[in-house]
Design brief:
By secondary structure, the protein is an alpha/beta fold. It has 2 domains: 205 residues, UDP-n-acetylglucosamine1-carboxyvinyl-transferase, Chain (Alpha-beta prism), CATH 3.65.10.10; 206 residues, Enolpyruvate transferase domain (UDP-n-acetylglucosamine1-carboxyvinyl-transferase, Chain), CATH 3.65.10. The protein has 14 helices and 24 strands. The strands form 6 sheets. The protein has a 4-stranded mixed beta sheet, covered by helices on one side. A hairpin with a 2-residue loop joins strand 16 and strand 17. It is globular, with a radius of gyration of 21 Å. The structure holds uridine-diphosphate-2(N-acetylglucosaminyl) butyric acid. Uridine-diphosphate-2(N-acetylglucosaminyl) butyric acid binds next to helix 1, helix 5, helix 6 and helix 12.
Length: 417
């Protein structure tokens, strides 16, 4: 296994290019199941979760071809409708094949994803929506088994805003009979990107990015060429990297509309952020003010940036209150940050951070994807050497984070252990 070693204290300087969005690429790759022909996808990030979804799709009969930077995808010869436990257990987002497989083949059997480190993460709302569309859905020996001769449009209310749930039902509905309305739909940019991709395939989706999405079923879809949006969480992570190291970096290829709330918070705490077209120049200063955050569905502060923002608050002047409202167990980075000298108290879904001038390098352990990123950020600012083990979590969702940071001047490398 790899560990990442960081000698902290260097201000970051230079330019970094943001990769394609993991959480947009996963449903978009799954959407290629909806029709035959060759799709060409640009800006697919190179990271572990993408390899996992490709493995799941390959197992169903999907074929891939690398074409320069683009990825070609073909599902003419689907020969399987089962996503097995050994593949699904490694990534919950595998559930994204549920809607498109049911639409294309009329049947699907997929291992029920278990809980994960950050919370129980049930999929009841995905299943309830498919039942409302006329599917027979039941659980069998740890698998979700769903079938439908023909899905039909339905009026669906999500009691909680769910990103992958909205995406799954949108993909199930594009070829259903009649109109499907998704109420209290997720508004995340990744949902909008999927809707744009599906519309360019010939789907009729209106309202993506608002609370109500209306999908009029169509008879046929066609393959397309499509480019994935930049990863807003990677962009946010680099913004914080500039702040926490008191550096100056140019972050290239962001969609600023997707990271407005992050930029606003970082301006509040005293960073300078200049917009230059699709690029941002971020400058961190010696004085970091404290600020409170509360994670919320988009356009609120993303839960996927909570751990990274907490790392920054560990060296801010004063107290900050971090409230996690999306997942019930997303504070696992706290005990590791404490090992680096952070002063954080947890009370239920709230963490009270008392900022201090310095963190110190330590041996720490990554527990989930964004927790790993927060430890990397803390280590960049800490005095001395930090060793982060279990960085396979980081590799699931960031393309070359350590390489990109090293090109920005940080002393960071990998070692085997
Ligand atoms: N929920 C239910 N029932 C459902 C579905 C969701 O109760 O049927 C609950 C969840 O337990 C959670 C809340 O609803 O408390 C929101 O979960 P959501 O379904 O929106 O999360 P997700 O779709 O499983 C995606 C991202 C996550 C990101 C969340 C929230 C992907 C592949 N994953 O997960 O990304 O945190 O939305 O924005 O798109 C990450 O990249 O590190 C990551 C965890």
């Amino acid at each position: 296994m790899d560990k990442i070693v960081i000698e902290g204290g260097d201000p970051l300087k230079g330019e970094v290019i943001i990769s394609g969005s993991k959480n947009a690429a996963l449903p978009i790759l799954s959407a290629c199941l909806l029709t035959d022909g060759w799709h060409t996808l640009d800006n697919i990030p190179k990271l572990k979760d993408i390899w996992t979804i490709k493995e799941i799709l390959s197992n169903l009969g999907v074929v891939f071809e690398e074409n320069g930077q683009a990825l070609r995808v073909n599902s003419d010869n689907l020969n399987n409708y089962i996503a097995p436990y050994n593949l699904v257990k490694t990534m919950r987002a595998s559930i994204l094949v549920l809607g498109p497989l049911l639409s294309r083949l009329g049947k699907v059997k997929i291992s029920l994803p278990g809980g994960c480190a950050i919370g129980a993460r049930p999929i009841n709302l995905h299943l309830k929506g498919l039942s409302a569309m006329g599917a027979d859905v039941h659980l069998e020996h740890g698998y979700v088994v769903a079938s439908a001769d023909k899905l039909r449009g339905a009026n669906i209310f999500f009691e909680i805003s769910t990103v992958n749930g909205t995406e799954n039902l949108m993909m199930a509905a594009v070829k259903a009979d009649g109109i499907t309305t998704l109420n209290n739909a997720a508004k995340e940019p990744e949902v909008v990107d999927l809707a744009n991709m599906l519309n360019s395939m010939g789907a009729r989706i209106k309202g993506a990015g608002t609370d109500t999405i209306a999908i009029t079923g169509v008879k046929e879809l066609h393959p397309i060429r499509y480019g994935i949006i930049p990863d807003r969480i990677e962009a946010g992570t680099f913004l914080i990297a500039a702040g926490i190291t008191k550096g100056k970096i140019k972050i290239k290829g962001c969609n600023l509309d997707h990271i407005e709330i992050i930029i606003e918070k970082l301006l509040d705490i005293g960073m300078e952020i200049e917009k230059q077209g699709e690029d941002l120049v971020a400058i961190g200063h010696d004085k970091i003010k404290s600020a409170d955050i509360k994670t919320m569905p988009f356009p609120g502060f993303p839960t996927d940036m909570q751990a990274q923002f907490m790392a920054l608050m560990c060296i801010a002047d004063g107290w900050s209150m971090i409230r996690e409202t999306i997942f019930e167990n997303r504070f696992m980075h706290v005990s590791e940050l404490r090992r680096m000298g952070a002063d954080i108290e947890i009370n239920g879904a709230q963490a009270l951070v008392r900022g201090k001038r310095n963190l110190s390098g330590a041996q720490v352990m990554a527990t989930d994807l964004r927790a790993s990123a927060s430890l990397v950020l803390a280590a960049l600012a800490a005095e001395g050497r930090t060793e982060i083990s279990r960085v396979y979590h980081l590799d699931r969702g960031y393309q070359d984070l350590d390489l990109k940071l090293s090109l920005l001047g940080s002393k960071i490398w990998r070692e085997k252990y």
